Amino acid sequence: MDSRRSLMSATTASLCFLWCICATVVVSNGELQRFIEPAKSDGSVSFITIGDWGRRGFFNQSIVAYQMGRIGEKINLDFVVSTGDNFYDNGLFSENDPNFEESFSNIYTAPSLQKQWYSVLGNHDYRGDAEAQLSPVLREIDSRWTCLRSFIVDAELVEIFFVDTTPFVKEYYTEADGHTYDWRAIPSRNSYVRSLLRDLEASLKRSKATWKIVVGHHAMRSIGHHGDTKELVEELLPIMKETGVDLYMNGHDHCLEHISDEDSPIQFLTSGAGSKAWRGDVDPMTNDPKSVRFFYDGQGFMSARFTHSDAEIVFYDVFGEVLHKWVTSKQLLHSSV
């Protein structure tokens, strides 16, 4: 173990360099870091979205992982999107925390899942060493792992804008409820959020992608345990509406759900059921019942497939059975359930 740690420390600098030149385009004017994922030869892009998962295989995490592998092969998976709360209960304690391999590398072993995993941090991740999950040392352990605070995945016809939502939530600063959050990189909540929103808005306005997706940990609209996140509704949602965002994907609530915005085409998709779910923890009065297209309070995950004209979103349970499917067309502006 000591020799392994020495090796990881010695290679950190070279990993940082290789990571940047091989997978990203870095722009110096404040634009979010960008990762390139070419579309398939048929012009399609497919990925799986999973959230709130890292529990060393317990709470059916391993079973969900198996079904993800099966569906990943079926849809010819390009990459995986993680909506945060990657490691429970309190993130990682360091970049050498065995929980990384015990909850990630040793669980998601299916051949179809040996693709890049693009991850944001959740509130539980901030309760540990948040910097550890961002460290290139983890990529030495498992090259699939890509985690930044905020960044872009450019898949040609689809651009996915990953947003660090935990610093938005004011109660984490004022009502920590006995938890300690790793705010080392965020000395000022207001300036951090303001800068992030400015960079995100600029990137969204520049985007020429057919489909624009924003991914964050916290729900913008939800009838689950946590419900709507007020700060995101007030500060992020207006930018999404102005810049033509199609979908918002999140975790945080340990359920699966699909809610339509009341006054825009935006669809809110929760995939936070990667392990421990909250059976029966639902508040149907949180949002207009007419806008709630689907809710499931068990374990599972979501897949997404995009072409230049169509998008297909599918939710699966812990047995890999289809619970809900939503298809929409850019050309016809028509959707069906």
What does this entry look like structurally?
Homodimer. It comes from Thlaspi arvense. Fe cation 1 binds at residues 52, 85, 88, 254. Residues 1-23 form the signal peptide. It catalyses: a phosphate monoester + H2O = an alcohol + phosphate. The structure is a single chain. This protein has helices at residues 2-23, 61-74, 99-105, 123-126, 130-134, 137-141, 171-174, 189-206, 230-235, 237-242; strands spanning 24-25, 34-36, 45-50, 79-82, 117-119, 145-147, 151-155, 158-163, 211-216, 247-250, 256-260, 267-271, 292-296, 300-306, 310-317, 322-329, 334-336. The chain is α/β, with parallel strands linked by helices and 337 residues long. A 9-stranded mixed sheet has the order 1-2-7-8-9-10-12-11-13. Helix 2 (61-74) links the parallel strand 3 and strand 4 (79-82). It is globular and about 50 Å long. The termini are far apart. The relative contact order is 0.15. The model is unreliable at 1-28 and 332-336 (pLDDT under 50).
